[in-house]
Amino acid sequence: QINADKQYGLLNEPWYLAMNPTGAIPTIDDDGFVLWESNAIVAYLARRYAPDRLFGGSEQTFARSLQWMMWTNYSLEPAMSALINHLERLPVEKRSAQVVEEHRKVMVEKMTLLEGQFARSRYLAGDEFSIADIPPAIAIHRFEHCNLERPRMPRLEEWLARLGER
After folding, report:
1. Which whole-number Å values give the CA distances from 97 to 4, 78, 131, in the listed order?
2. Furthest-apart CA atoms within the chain: distance in Å
3. Neighbouring C-alpha atoms within 13 Å toward the C-beta of 131
4. CA distance to 2, 6, 25, 83, per residue, from 77 (Å)
5. d(CA 144, CA 68)
6. Torsion angle, CA of 44/131/143/5, rounded to 10 degrees?
7. Which of 17, 87, 142, 143 has the highest Cβ tally under 10 A?
8. For 73-111, how does the pLDDT look when each residue is reduced to its tens digit (9 = 90+)?
């Protein structure tokens, strides 16, 4: 393991860019197989090392998991990035309460969609934990740490508690 982020540097070093031309994290080297992009890494590790535990060995569950992972990238992560920027990362004078409120509403809307999904299944891709649950849980966990207002969502909260027990 090598620490590489804005704090440690290394992301623009030629050796790192040779592995990951985007200069972003994460990147893994699994016995000579180099892969970057967190959801691609999660899917690869699940298929290679734990297909039965992380998607029940089912190609349909794997595909449904990818569906939720991609949804997270396009529906949750942009809103979370904006929130983190305007709550923490940007200089205070560049932060916008209006941007925070707009993206808070987006997150609540998307979390409401998840609340509805949990009326149909215990986890996102079915009744068992899978890789589908990892990326959205991370985004929602980040949202919870922002301490922004949201309505109570009992099914989503139960899902988060089940994940926390893991």
Report:
1. 31, 17, 34
2. 50
3. 32
4. 25, 19, 15, 10
5. 20
6. -20
7. 143
8. 999 999 999 999 999 999 999 999 999 999 999 999 999
| Separation of CA 67 from chain center | 13
Question: Got the DSSP string for 47-87?
Answer: HHH-HHHHHTT-HHHHHHHHHHHHHIIIIIHHHHHHHHIII
Distance of CA 98 to the CA centre of its chain: 24
Q: Which residues contact 71 (CB under 8 A, 6 or more apart)?
A: 136
Return d(Cα 94, Cα 63) in angstroms, integer: 40
Token readout for 73 is 């990238």
pLDDT in tens, 27-59: 999 999 999 999 999 999 999 999 999 999 999
| Chain mean position to CA 115 | 17
